[in-house]
Amino acid sequence: MRLVTAAITFLVPLALTPGLLFYYDITPKDVLILLGAAVLALFAAGNFSLIQRLRLSRRGRWYVGLVAGMIVMPALAALSSPLAAMAWNGSNLRRWGAITEMATLAIAFLIALGVGSSRSGRRLLLRCWCVAGVVASAYGILQYFGWDPIIPAYLYQVGEGSFQIVRPPATLGHSDYFAAFLLWPVFSGIGLWCSDKGPSRWLGAVSAMLCVAAMVLSGSRGALLGLGAGACMLLYFRRVPVRTLALTFGAMAIAAGAFTVSPAGARLRARAFWISEDPAGGARPLLWRDSLRMAAGRPWLGYGPDTFVAAFPRFQSRELSRAYPDFFHESPHNMLLDSLTGDGLVALIMLLALIGLGFFAGRRAAKQDVEGAALVAALTGTVAAHQFVVLIAPTALALYTGIGLLVQLAQPREKEAVAPARNPPLWIASCALVAAGLMIFGARIALADAALQRVARSIQLRDANGAAQAYQSAQKWRATGLTADLPLSRRAAEASASELTLPDKAIFARIALAASRQATQIPEQRQNAWYNLAVLEASGENPAVVEASLRAAIAEGPYWFKPHWMLARVLKLRGNVDEARREAVLALDLNAGKDREVKATLGDLLRSAGPPR
């Protein structure tokens, strides 16, 4: 049990499989979650007494009930979702569907039961978080300084010249997810430094310092806010002499200032400039408002877990579209709004109750030892940081595990010695069935992703026949919900335009068109898929198909300027001048004058159309 727990806690945030899987920073984490949940389910089949022991206290009963409710709610939301298949499997951007969400909750619950009840078990988890934090932070820091043998640097670099910023994602896929995860190794490290001895104590110190440095370099304001909130909570429970506190913060301020003004801090200064230009947090205020309007349409069970990316475009306001005309919103950038729009109001109340239970249990635990105070600080920081970012599998696993550890810490010690309960046959059968299902599902998405990577590799190598065969083979895995039609279509179209023989060009063009048509059948990014299909069909001189595709894109995302812009030109070619003029004016308005090309092109279009009729 401890070996499995350590492996899950350490590997899930670090798992990367470049060259093996298409979604190399998402799928391996999900597979580990699913397989880990399956193994722990088999462990739970023979240890029903652990749950019986937890139910002896009121706090434990609340914990069991809330976790059970939170496992049920994603299933109910997925069953009632208008995007049911996507709700079960999750989007290709996060893979946080009902199955993964339920598996993550189950893992955290079983880890807390099986390992969190003993001091040595809790310290094992703190050490695993610290080691994972050290590895991830070291990688993120190297990314900031320009060394990355795994992920192409252009994926996390923005801007040019002196205003170029770097947002290192390390192994978490995005800098905000990376920084939010680091809160756990930071405070775990402080807990080990203050309570442990020997190598673990120094592991804690290295983890805390390295993770704070990486957090600063990530440029995540939400995580830094969480760091401050967690530090305040830690200071509240563990009194620190004013002199020590002043010296610590003074040293940190001097080090940060010296780095910022040095040549190495140029990209950090650029990030500070970007923040000063947009202090309100970018699109978030308008995004949150529109997300609430979206939630009002299905308040009780939501639209399904991780379906925001498909459902939100129809609710996106004109104001948000004009402020960020070519920006794609994959989530509400808020943990609570994500729960509300995905799983519904009841699930949100349960999530808040579970967090509240963690704080309530942590209040007692923090007064008992420094490890409890460190866990409460990490929980505080995580909740604060996730008001600006959503959960993914690694951060959710850390959050739910931390709450479970706090509940176990607050358990009355005298009630732990209970007679082992007999494992009910139905319980054993249920656990075995769940374990088998999770193993099968995890294996299927791994094979599906590997099939997509074979297509991508063949396209990259410009192997037309190999790409055609690989793409045909990948179609049999579409039922898993793991697809990549839109990016593969664009890559194949790029290959067809490169210097190849005419037969190879034709093969890549057929792949691009077939994948583009397939992409329109998937809810995720459907407006982009229809627009991409219109662009590809435009080369075939079939304006009716292009027009139909653009109108379909507009139906999916009414306030995205690009389909209106392209439709205006198509309508002009087809002789529908009046409607072309209306679409041109609308496209210019939705673009808010942010692109000179749009203004110039539409100006020419309006002048050539003549006076309105």
Description:
The protein has 613 residues and is an all-alpha fold. It folds into two domains: 425 residues, no CATH class; 168 residues, Alpha Horseshoe (Serine Threonine Protein Phosphatase 5, Tetratricopeptide repeat). Helix content is 70%, strand content 1%. It has a two-stranded antiparallel sheet. Helix 17 packs antiparallel against helix 18 and helix 22 runs parallel beside helix 24. The longest helix is centred in the last third of the chain and has 36 residues. The chain is globular, with a radius of gyration of 26 Å. The relative contact order is 0.11.
Strand order of the largest sheet: 1-2
Biggest sheet architecture: 2 strands, antiparallel
Give me the number of helical elements.
28
User: What gap, in angstroms, lies between the N and C termini?
Assistant: 77 Å
Q: How many domains, as an integer?
A: 2
Number of strands: 2
Please tell me what the overall shape is: globular
| Average residue pLDDT | 91
Order of helices and strands: HHHHHHHEEHHHHHHHHHHHHHHHHHHHHH
- Helix and strand content put the structural class at mainly alpha
Please report which band the strand proportion falls in: under 5%, 5-15%, 15-25%, 25-35%, 35-45% or over 45%: under 5%
Helix content: over 70%
Q: Radius of gyration, rounded? A: 26 Å
Uncertain parts: none
